Amino acid sequence: MDTITVKDKQFRLSIPEARIQAAIQREAERINKDYEGREPLFLAVLNGAFMFAADLMRNVSIPSEISFVKLASYEGMGTTGKVKSLIGLPEGIRGRHVVIVEDIVDTGLTMLHLLETLRAQEPASISVCTLLLKPEKLQVDLDIKYCALEIPNEFIVGYGLDYDGQGRNLRDIYTVV
Ligand code: IMP
To answer: How many angstroms does the Cα of residue 63 sit away from the middle of ligand 1?
Structure first.
């Protein structure tokens, strides 16, 4: 299906499953080479990265571990604005080679916050592996070592990414019409 409806919006097919899988395989092979002998700890960011993490890990062939974290927004008591706290961070990050697995880097603010939080745990190294990047929207200086696909500045849904909670289960990626 080339056009779908999610809630009140129409989306058109933009990145078919086969292209997504080929791009993931390519990045996994790079990781297999770069992290040989280092037993990396993959940290996948929920909810969006669940599907990407599953497919990435099926292409990772070196000894490694995976764990899942979530950024939870909450209203700080007596403060204005939202604070995002990282939940689910496993113990024993110190001295590990960490690879953050994210669905999309848009402005980059989420990733910047994540990197700062993780660096405080003193891992041996941290790199970023994102399925998608919107280079035109990036607001901060980030070193993104592994990026499967670059996309224009348009809203997308599917393959883990949602529109208002829905569409995460789509196998392909769709762009809003
Ligand atoms: P950033 O902090 O602006 O980089 O935003 C990152 C987060 O925004 C991602 O983890 C997604 O949850 C969400 N996001 C950004 N762009 C899109 C999109 O096109 N579709 C769905 N979610 C998006």
So the answer is: 30
